[in-house]
Design brief:
The protein is 31% helix and 22% strand. The protein is an alpha/beta fold and 311 residues long. The protein has two domains: 149 residues, Murein tetrapeptidase LD-carboxypeptidase, N-terminal domain (Rossmann fold, 3-Layer(aba) Sandwich); 138 residues, Glucose Oxidase, domain 1. The strands form two sheets. Strands 6-14-13-8-9-10-11-7 form an eight-stranded mixed beta sheet. The mean pLDDT is 96.
């Protein structure tokens, strides 16, 4: 089945209430406070989930108990006074809470803006499959790139408030692995999470007709090889219309190794592939909407949306 566009939430207005949650790893308190100040400076009213600063008593890589992390997300989503839910950070643990959420209640609450990246990819996929909702692969409130990089902040702020001003996405770093032009619906995120989701209730049948946006961090070349090979052998990449590549931080030497691997695994798909488009675990990370129809054009080295990310 070819991917169809998803429902777009409403853009934010001055004074909008945004909830900050931690579905995965533990959150540094000082970074969170700095991030909240940035959001307040945009005219937003941020509220923090009760368990955001928790740390799991046995597993220090988790932001508290699974139940607490799930409740924060669910309560924020179902609160009619909340217009958007922003993640504080990613980190392992998101997959552990997906099946603890009351998806029927969240569906009944209606569409809202949801923002995050990295392991939050598991929730992007769940929101697409279970809620049919456009989400934003974008910076998180307690991450260094959001706190330190003005371009990262600008991209998210413009997407939230004036989405028609960011219809063409790409940085001057972008290059071409495979030339061409393709139209499709955006999907993707952290590629290791997409592979890890295969066989779960939130796994889509595949990326057919889609523009696949992928990036990752800390995966050596042989592990990226395994991830991409698994996605290919499973049939998940069959019929994909085009591929946009983001950052590959700490994945090995890009020019000498990672690029060669990406071309080896993705080139045989016979579709346009743009590299270093400027999203993911990097400075100057663009906010990329998932679930929106767009054109990937290697001549322009950009992704151009058919419609704004938010209504």
């Amino acid at each position: 089945m070819t991917l169809a566009p998803l429902t777009r939430p409403a853009r934010l207005r001055q004074g909008a209430r945004v909830a900050v949650v931690a579905p995965g790893g533990p959150v540094p308190g000082e970074r969170l406070e700095t991030g909240l100040d940035i959001l307040r400076g945009w005219g937003l009213d941020p509220v923090v989930g009760r368990h955001v600063l928790d740390v799991h008593r046995d597993f220090g890589y988790l932001a508290g108990a699974d139940e607490g992390r799930a409740r924060d997300l669910e309560e924020a989503w179902c609160d009619p006074s909340v217009d958007a839910v922003l993640c504080a950070r990613g980190g392992y643990g998101v997959q552990r809470i997906v099946d603890l959420l009351d998806w029927a209640a969240m569906r009944a609450a209606g569409p809202k803006v949801f923002v995050g990246y990295s392991d939050i990819t598991a929730l992007h996929e769940a929101f697409a499959v279970r809620l049919g909702l456009v989400t934003l692969h974008g910076p998180m409130a307690a991450t260094v790139s959001f706190l330190k990089d003005a371009r990262t902040q600008d991209s998210l702020r413009d997407t939230l408030f004036e989405p028609e001003s960011v219809m063409t996405l790409g940085l001057e770093t972008a290059g071409v692995l495979v030339p061409g032009r393709a139209h499709g619906v955006t999907l993707g995120g952290c590629v290791s999470l997409l592979a890890a989701g295969l066989g779960t209730p939130d796994a889509r049948a595949g990326a057919r007709g889609g523009l696949l946006l992928i990036e990752d961090i800390g995966e050596e070349a042989y592990r990226l090889d395994r991830i991409l090979t698994q996605l290919s052998r499973s049939g998940w990449l069959d019929g994909v219309a085009g591929v946009a590549l983001g950052s590959w931080e700490d994945c090995g030497p890009y020019e000498e190794e990672v690029r060669t691997l990406l071309y080896d695994r993705l080139g045989p798909l016979g579709v346009p592939v743009v590299e270093e488009l400027g999203f993911g675990h990097c400075a100057s990370a663009l906010t990329m909407p998932l679930g929106v129809p767009a054109v990937l054009d290697t001549d322009a080295r950009a992704l151009t949306l058919d419609v704004p990310a938010l209504r």
